[in-house]
Structure formats: structure tokens, C-alpha cells
Structure prediction request, 130 residues.
Amino acid sequence: MNLKLIDYIPSNTNIDVINATKNLYTNSKVSISYQRGDLERFLTISGIVTENNKGYQSQIIYKKASNELKGLCNCPHWKDLPFCHHSLCLLEYYLQQKINEDLIQNFTPEHFFSHLVLNNKWSVHYFVNP
Ligand SMILES: [Zn+2]
Prediction:
């Protein structure tokens, strides 16, 4: 299964929104209030994403059949866009949880290290120059 955010957002999405999402995921608090389904069919996640001490009520819906991604949010950015960085942050949070679950379920040293190399540039550097 693809667990990268970029695989689920339309290719014409503004790069600023993607960068803002990554930044938000790293620096903010995400609190999931509702989650149902999965990326194989239909996924919906609602929650509160805190940015600069302000909480935004946000939701993301993904439909695999139509490859459709829709966000809802009470922030000022959302109204001009199909989704904002808060709603995408919920998806990124879900993807990161899945990556962690995968790591735990399929734990073998080989899998663990190949995962690190694939997902962390710093690790690649570390293995090349120990
Ligand atoms: Zn928002």
C-alpha cells in the first residue's frame, strides 16, 4: 500500500499546501475525534489540528473508486481550495500511524533497516558513513 501523502493528492495541488502540511504535521498537535474506513475503499477522518495555539475543526474524505480527496475546515484558507493544510494534516497523521503499525507488525531487522533507509535521508547518510 502506498503510504505517502503525495500519492493521494491531485498532481495540480499547490506545493505550498503540501509543504505547509508537512510543517504542520511536524509542529502541531493533531487530535482525532472520528475515523472510519481505509484507503482501500473510503476513508473519513475528523479531528482538531492545532496551529499557533488555535485549534481548527477539520475533516478529510478519500474515495478510492473516484480517487477523490475532499477537505472540510473552519479555517480561512479552506474556502478557496478543495482542502487546506489542516485537513491534509489529518491524512498525513493517518499515513504515519499506518507506517508505524507496518513497522511493528512486520518487524524483522531487514525490514526495519530497509524502511529507515527508504524513509529517512539521515539514515542513508548514516549507513553510508557510519
Ligand atoms: Zn484548515
